[in-house]
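Appendix C reproduces, verbatim, an entry submitted by the partner laboratory led by Prof. M.T., so that reviewers can inspect both the input and the predicted structure.
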Amino acid sequence: MYHKITIAGNLGRDPEMRFLPNGQAVTNLNVATNRVYTDSNGQKITETIWFRVSVWGARGETVNQYLKKGSKVLIEGRLNVDPETGGPRVFTRNDGTTGASYEITAQNVIFLSSRSEDQSRQTPASGGFSEQVDEDDIPF
């Protein structure tokens, strides 16, 4: 049996790389995907889903080296489910509402934005991106 998930989105924060005791690298990404549609009342609705992505080995090291908050990526991999529920990991936010965390182990990461595009989104005065993602909006 086989399954595969493909998402395209933007990094919500800089990649975080760590090394396991055996020396293997793993890089964690937070990727936001958006769906924009018009509801029956004519209002434009934006729906954002966040994914936690793990990228292993040399590929993870490369991702950590070249990507940063705001980078556009396409991720291909496998969806990891919560062993207890068989679905996404469910959690309670600080405000008491329920959220879900979708987790992916990446098998392929394609960079969709170039370095110059990533750098052009930076504002010299703030040192950050003009398309800011509020850290409080990232559910994990």
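Confidence is low (pLDDT under 50) at residues 123-132. Additional entries are available on request from the coordinating office.
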